[in-house]
User: Fold these one by one.
Assistant:
Number 1:
Amino acid sequence: MKVYIIDDHALFRNGLVSLLESRKISAKSAPSPEQGLNEIPDLQLDVILLDLRMPSMSGIEVLKALKKQGEETPIVMLTTSTEESDLRDCLKHGAQGYLLKDMDPDELVDALEEIKTGNIVVAQDMTYMLAKILRNELTDNEPSFDSLTDREKEVACQIAVGHSNKVIARELGISDGTVKLHVKSILKKLTLSSRVEVAVMVTEKRYCK
């Protein structure tokens, strides 16, 4: 395995190179993001390790720059940060791993092996936070009743009580054709496939008074 490390702390960087080489892993390093960005395109690598906090460029900025260059080597953050926002931002911008600097050496090597095969690996101490982020992402991506226009909400509420298009048209003073267009838009916005699903969602969530 060939690993490249970008970290501005000489003691940690050199220690990590020695650790990896003692495990028969080829390791090169750079003390600055600029040097790393210059050297990496010419190298055949299996994993790139990035420090998150560096003075000239942050790890996320380096991550973005590497992705912009078209770098396909798995990029992993190796950091002391246990902040949820850092984990979320790194994964959002394409990091394939988020590892902590105080992890056991054997765990680090195992993680690098997994990452090399294409897996996404997050430090064990951060898995609860990853689960939280995923839950929030799923919640944020749920279809929202608030995404409907006021008229669409009125139509959805009429659907929920079982009214046909003709009845809805009469109740709201609009044409049957307009009701059909509203129903189509409602299904699309709520990612539903039938009027029944609209009725169930509206009723369960108590959207209509």
Number 2:
Amino acid sequence: MKLVLASNNAGKLAELQALFAPLGVELVRQADLGIPEAPEPHCTFVENALAKARHAAKVSGLPALADDAGLCVEAFGGLPGVDTAYYATRFGYAKSDDNNVRALLEQLAGVTDRRAALVSTLVALRSAEDPEPLIATGRAPGLITQAPVGDGGFGFDPVMFLPQFGKTFAELSTEDKNANSHRGKAAQQMLALMRERWFAASPAQP
């Protein structure tokens, strides 16, 4: 089964492709199909993910999968949330993962409450008009470090410390990260939903 991924993020594609491999699902980036990014005007992850999935499904004619994810920092009242990708631009930096990390650490300078969570919401649609979207959410709580640690992953992985591992996401193996990340948790939920709703064998007629 081929699904269009409503994202142009190569790191996100690689993570999700590995996670969905057991179902025999092939993910294709919307950019590879010439589909522009959808507007994301909403203030919640689920609304934005649904808007992106409907847009990709409508333009491609394929089932679609969309992910909206971000960092929710306790000291900031849950922000930057849905605006995580553009966080650095609020402080005069160009949009990039490295600048996001730089801006976050600058804004948390002197702040003792370092609690935060990476949150991912996945939405899957059989078509743009699907009245029953599959929705899965994953949350990975942790602490923001004082400086980046580790060379793996992307986004905020180098500054997201997981007390249960004593490491940041950027220090974990791919297997450990996929099993414990916000996106990994959401993907596992989504796999279970797809198996139940989309791939389950039809019950025998009485």
Number 3:
Amino acid sequence: MNHDKTPTGHLAAFITILIWGTTFISTKVLLETFSPVEILFIRFVMGYLALWLVCPRTLKLDSRRQEPLFMAAGLCGITMYYLLENIALTFTLASNVGVIISIAPFFTAILSCLFLGGTRPGRQFFIGFLLAMAGIFLLSFGSSSLSINPMGDILAVAAAIIWAVYSTLTKKISALGYGTIQTTRRTFFYGLIFMIPALALMDFNVSLSQVTSPLNLCNLLFLGLGASALCFVTWNLAVKILGSVRTSVYIYMVPVITTVSSALVLKEPVTMTAVCGIALTLAGLFLSERPSMHQRPDRAGTVH
């Protein structure tokens, strides 16, 4: 790993999570007019077009055998993850989904060991994981009762696993040496292609007036240009520099940012339970993210 680029990797991961943690506000507004799959398709079309404008050069692969990596990344990170998450939200509480999705770094660590040649994460990674889960649990359920819904919770677990697969695929793609913007755009392309059957099944029906409404357009631009085009590039850049495991632990911060932004934007009260939850989550993040001294770089040159 190039240590000179490590701060850049952390900054890219933090920017990504900072934006992803606030997207719920835009999504909440748009759900009054659009269905989840309509929002999903529009934001990634916008993101795909934006990446073309930023980098109009066509990506030429060295080998056709590399194409399945991009297809799998698009299927997992764009289509399946968001569809599973959105469907899970129709069955169970958003707080349940938020906690369950946050276990993605655990699965990422396992997949890194199996497919990237990484060593098994040390004790501090798992202690950090437990601390972060305790903090996220306090943030999510501190003011509400725990509600178990097998179908919704199983779908959320599946989404977390799928995101771990995407992060692992992203690391393999970054090892190919292509530009981050071009590889992200190619992933978006396959994600949109795989999304088409879902559009047909879920009754996609969007009018121009819906999209051009000032409030809707501003929120769609935020999701399309910020949360999709920018964030997937910065996330993939972070994975390229830090590795899939160290980048994935930043997911722990999403509930923290959501809580803080809710207080700032929606004026929701922050309880002492939430403050304790934020402290535990951040402690878990820093402990899990920090590589152990005994760990060695994996085959891709990334410390885990």
Number 4:
Amino acid sequence: MRENTQNLNVYEHEIPIGSRLYFGKSAKVKREIEQKASEILTDEGFSEMVTPFFSYHQHLSVNATQLLRFSDHANHQISLRADSTVDVVRIALRRLKSDKGKKWFYIQPVFRYPSSEIYQIGAELIGESDLSISLKIVAKLLGELGLKPVLQVSNIEIPHTICEILNLSIDVFERGQIEQILAQDVDWLNRLALLKSPEEIDEVSKIVPKELVKPLTNLKELAKASEYENLRIVPLYYSKMRYYDKLFFRFLSQNSILAGGGNYEIDGAQSSGFAVYTDALIEQLID
């Protein structure tokens, strides 16, 4: 009996690893970030949406091994929200059915197995494929918070096309196994791996297979449209989010991902969107 009481006392004031607790300064900074983001997105013509914690569709967004799953009243499998994009787009297209409501934002957590709680600010531009719009909104928010992170731009089409040309599995890119990719000992692939600036794309485009020219050109156009000074081209990057299929961007600082976004297609709608990772921003602003 004494042992059970001791175990209860051990966990009485503990929180699970991966979960979040905000108090004092961190709670204040979190609220300021969310308020600033809400103001910017509202000014940009977005409306807010808060989606359910439970979802039937999360396997379309992330790997099933990351989901916290259980059964509903009818024994259908559901999961805690691990990503917001698919649910936001489907709710907007199927339930609201309005041509006017195409720009939505949300400020809410997602949950990943075994006990990760991730707060984020996200937005979806349904039917809008110009990713530079999302990129500039994120850059504006980060700038107003006093942050100047590195911007990385990529095109998910490039890894997929390389896999088709060289008969590789996309798992190689998903796991970031660059050494295995470069072990192919292909000159144009090595040049792609070293590519860093938009100006270098024109030269590389002269030697790559023709299937890669258009994806590289689109990547160059996004880089130039961003008008962002601290920029890197990363053509071999592959996002693990299942719905991103074309252009993609990330803002990074001190090995932390502050935000990311890209193009995707859900239910036939070519769209774009982004997520800003609140906890990463709090760490940057409090340090």
